[in-house]
Amino acid sequence: MTEQELKAHLSEFRGQLSIDPDSLEQECVMQPLLFCQIGELAAEARSDAKKAKEHVEYVKAKLKGDMRTNPKTYGLDKVTDKAVEAAVQAHPDTQEALRDYIESNKAADAMSILQTSAEQRRAMLKNLVELIVHHYYNSGDVSSMKGRKSEQNMEAIVELRNRNRQQRDLDDEIVNEDD
């Protein structure tokens, strides 16, 4: 995965991690798909990192063999273990393979963090649903008129959502004023 692809994936999925409390049903339905997509990319990134590590080992082994066979081609006077190891580490092919390995590890780490964020999103969705259900069943008085109670509960939920939305708007205004 190139750095540009990584940035594009991170940007795309970061935007999908936020939760719209007014659309919890849709958020809950989309969570498994989001988690699956992120998980697949994280697995791909881990695989790329493993392949890059294997490539580093391959490059080093190939260079060691070539240096022992043709030391003059690589500017080696003596074919000692230390001299060969130092020449392998300094060789541009090794350096390039190491850079690729570091970049692929960075991508794997970033995708792992994104995957953890998706897991946290799942937990937050569960908590939000539980809070709404809890509020739904615990608000209002105990009456024999179930229809009336349901209406009161729904009104209370709508009122709570409106208050929360107003508070978020005020918080956003305060933050924008501070900037």
General description of the model:
It is built from five helices and no strands. The protein is 84% helix and 0% strand. The protein is elongated and about 90 Å long. It has 179 residues and is mostly helical. It folds into two domains: 3-138; 144-179.
Q: Which oligomeric form is depicted?
A: single chain
What is the terminal-to-terminal distance? 36 Å
Largest sheet: none
From the alpha-carbon coordinates, what is the Rg to the nearest angstrom? 28 Å
Number of helices: 5
By secondary-structure content and strand pairing, the structural class works out as mainly alpha
Round the mean pLDDT to the nearest integer and report it: 84
* Helix coverage percent: over 70%
List segments where confidence is low: pLDDT < 50 over at least 5 consecutive residues: 141-147
Spatial shape = elongated
Determine the strand fraction and express it as a percent band: under 5%
Q: How many distinct beta strands?
A: 0
**Overall number of domains:** 2
Short description:
The chain is mostly helical. The chain has helices spanning 3-17, 24-69, 81-90, 92-138, 146-178.
Descriptive labels:
about 180 residues; mainly alpha; 2 domains; 5 helices; about 85% helix; elongated
Task: Give the topology, please.
Blueprint: H1 3-17, H2 24-69, H3 81-90, H4 92-138, H5 146-178
Helix pairs in contact: 1-4, 2-3, 2-4, 4-5
